[in-house]
Amino acid sequence: MSKPRPLIAGNWKMNGRQADGLALAEAILAGAGDMTAELLLCPPATLIAPVGERIRGSGIALGGQDCHWAASGAHTGDIAAPMLADLGCRYVIVGHSERRHGHGETDAMVKAKAEAALAAGLIAIVCLGETEAERDRGEAESVVGRQLEGSLPEGASPDKVVVGYEPVWAIGTGRTPSNADIEAIHGVLRRDLAASFPEADRFRLLYGGSVKPGNCEEILGLANVDGALVGGSSLKEQEFLTIARTCG
Ligand code: PGA
């Protein structure tokens, strides 16, 4: 079975004013050219509309960093999935560790958000990953297996859901698991998906956590790694483009 098209997603997190965000989007647009990988930009909510304007029609995809599980209503400060779709988003990240750990989001909440994303016609990037203490206790595989089971939306399919493995302790730290550890977790994810989906090979499984130009080639070459979620390096156009070009 042929490998799915790789996805390189830039999660800008809570960074950038209009001028920086637009300059970054323009630099990425100018440097992207023809690439094997699909590029995705997930700006902060304030920049989704203007960045979307700049990249419209370019083939670079736009995404949100989170969404609410409700389609509308009295949820101060939140964004609904249909609002993201309305701005031209194709993707939304749900269950990022900074949401799970910073905002107390559970698997059930992540699943509900992913279902809201699918209902709005968005592709949900469902993130999961163990903490350092869980890895030290030898629980990494069981934790991600449980998170996958609890967070995958009803109606998931390879065209509607991307899975992001992001060990909490590797995000923004400069540390990454060994290649063997990444392959082991991605193998567990693929195996677990195969138990429910005959087309499990078509799901894109992204690795995230301190991906940078110095390590992207080996990480993106690992079995069952179909792309990357990039935080810090997505704010520097040359680093982000270098990572994306690794895929050809
Ligand atoms: P990082 O973030 O690349 O800065 O480690 C990754 C992420 O949170 O997606």
Characterize the structure shown.
The protein is α/β, with parallel strands linked by helices and 248 residues long. It has one domain: TIM Barrel (Alpha-Beta Barrel). The chain contains ten helices and eight strands. The chain has helices spanning 18-32, 45-55, 81-86, 97-100, 107-119, 132-136, 140-151, 179-196, 216-220, 237-245, and strands at residues 7-11, 38-42, 61-64, 91-94, 123-128, 161-165, 204-208, 227-230. An eight-stranded parallel beta barrel has the order 1-2-3-4-5-6-7-8, surrounded by five helices. α9 links the parallel β7 and β8 (227-230). The radius of gyration is 17 Å and the shape is globular. The two termini are 19 Å apart. The mean pLDDT is 97. Bound molecules: 2-phosphoglycolic acid. 2-phosphoglycolic acid binds next to β8.
**Bound heterogens, unique:** 2-phosphoglycolic acid
The CATH class is Alpha Beta
Instruction: Please state the CA-atom Rg, rounded to the nearest Å.
Output: 17 Å
Average predicted local confidence, pLDDT: 97
Strand order of the largest sheet: 1-2-3-4-5-6-7-8
The figure for the number of domains is 1
CATH homology superfamily name: Aldolase class I
CATH structural architecture: Alpha-Beta Barrel
| CATH topology (fold) name | TIM Barrel
